[in-house]
Amino acid sequence: IVEISRKAGKQVIVRSNLTIYFEKGFTDIPEYCAGHQLRVVASLPCYLADNVDKMRGEGVYDRSIAALQWLNRLGYAQEPNLIVDLVYNPQIPKSENFSLTPDQVSLTRDYKKFLQEHFNISFNNLFTITNLPVGRTRFHLEHRQLYQPYLQFLEDHFNGDTVEHLMCRNQLSIDYLGNIYDCDFNQMEDLAACTGQDQKLTLSDLLQADSLDLIAEVQTASYCYGCTAGSGSSCGGALISS
Predict the structure, then answer these.
(1) What's the DSSP call for residue 46?
(2) Is the whole-model pTM more than 0.85?
(3) Residues 30, 33, 38, 41: what is their CA dihedral angle, to the nearest 10 degrees?
(4) Is 50 exposed, middle or buried (0-12, 13-18, 19+ CB in 10 A)?
(5) Residues 216-227: pLDDT tens digits?
């Protein structure tokens, strides 16, 4: 899929947790990404070791730093066609002391300054992404009776200026069976894109019609407030400036 897409002149984005580069059977990934000029979007939820290891597990920070240095040696963040972006996520709430993502511009400066000074690491962009209450995050919140309070917090911080820029308005998510979703969060929750007659749509349907107009409207749920709270949130980070 990667090689066919690249031959067609398309940009290919690979989401990575970085630590997989050191697992048996996956050590060729960095060179493969560089060889095909793949854009790497990598999770590094904080630039401080203690916070990352508390969130992701012992040793994750050190392996992530080593992986970023590896990518830099291959030319990432050095050459214009080799882009590596980082993703910031807040810690999953453990109490009702909820918070939104910090200002993306100022946090980017902090990340770049710290990683360059301490590890000589460069990267291109930082994306701040809100924790949406789906999947494991929802399970965590429900376990602590925080699910409904967190939903209310997101709703209370709704920002109408974000709506025009929501990723569900210009992107689709497609699973390996060809089912269509308005975003990857809807895919996680099995909330499929539908026709006006509530018929679930597949890639075959869209290709046969040669049109996206089969999709009647964007499917929404209560967790959508996560993408519209504060500065907004998407696969590409904040939607508007703070």
Answers:
(1) -
(2) yes
(3) -30
(4) exposed
(5) 999 999 999 999
